[in-house]
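Blinded run. Sample ID left blank on purpose so nobody reads anything into the name before looking at the predicted structure. Input follows.
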Amino acid sequence: MRIISYIKDLMYERKWFNRAAINYNMLLAIIFLCVFGVIMIYSASYYYAQTAYGYESSYFLKNQAKFVAVGFVMMIALSFIDYHVWKELSGFAVFGAFALVLLLLVPGIGRASHGAVRWLRFGPIQFQAAEPIKLCMIMFLAYFIDKTKMDTMKKAVIALVISGLLSVLVWQISDNMSTAIVIMGICILLIFIANPKMNAKICIGVVIGFLVFLLIGVFVVDQIIPASENENFRITRIRAWLHPTDPLYASDEAMQPAQALYAIGAGGLFGKGLGQSLIKFRLPEPHNDYILAIIAEELGIFGVVLLMFLFVYLLYQIYRIAQNARDLFGKMIAAGVFAQIALQVVLNVAVVSSVIPSTGVTLPFISSGGASVIFLMAELGVVFSVDKWTKEQGYYREAKKYVEQQEKKRNKKYQGGYL
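Blinded prediction complete.
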């Protein structure tokens, strides 16, 4: 007990321990999303776990619950630490992001799965490099914007070039286009928030240019490049997205998008009931990228809308924290986490509903994945810290104001009595 008391006193004296109350509204939204995700992972994966791996039906449920528990503890712990502690370290976070990408090329560390090298393995620990890379870039961009104030076009271009270079490396080395898009999206949004008047043109220009590039690319793939057996799998995915009923793609690349649409249609308004999905017996790894289709089939459009409401509510709470933050560093951290979650949700919904070709982006908190939920909850822990520090500053300001008022009353009373 003495040791614990000593540590507490030490933290209080050094003023890096946040003592303000946690944002319970945001915490409840996160808990609901995590619990819902674990339940749906079990519903989507129990058959797949038995047939594909020979595991017990609850294997993926237990696995995800374990990672959620670890992430939750990490989130609460980080919420008590003043986020300014990470400020100077954040300047070096970009080197960590580049190092994580390059480590994928190291034999024995970079691990291949499903034809792509996206996993890093250090002894018994294995995780997707994309997840810590997103955290590193959010912290670095928050630091960079706080230091430079993003008040010239040159500084905005520097941020875009650094993020663009990292995105290209992620895309080329790990063949992970979705993470590359999320990184660039975070960068563009943070630049816009930092200085919306000056950088609006460059942000809008980058977005329009990217969309035009995609449209031209889709047209070229569909109309100019002839189909071949050895073509890049992304080109094949675009063809499958444009022609899902073509016999060349219907049983392979177009199978997942088509089955997802069948699941959405079969679910109707209120769904077939929890655990009653039939499409999950046909989808490969139904507990991952396409889990939203299983949700739509079992819980219907009503269940999907409720899930989207939870995401919107969580994003609203993060938005309020960013808006009320006392310094630019905290504001950018919260805005970066907001951008990551929002982009991943939008991209996943777009992929499952076949609005865009399949990109392999997961649905936050819901799709199966240990590294995804742990690092996302670590980011949210820092956001909690921003909110708690903002509250503490508010308490200090109110206390100071109260003391000043009391001093004025005392001085006035003393002067009146003296005269």
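Unblinding after everyone has recorded impressions. The two ends are 56 Å apart (CA to CA).
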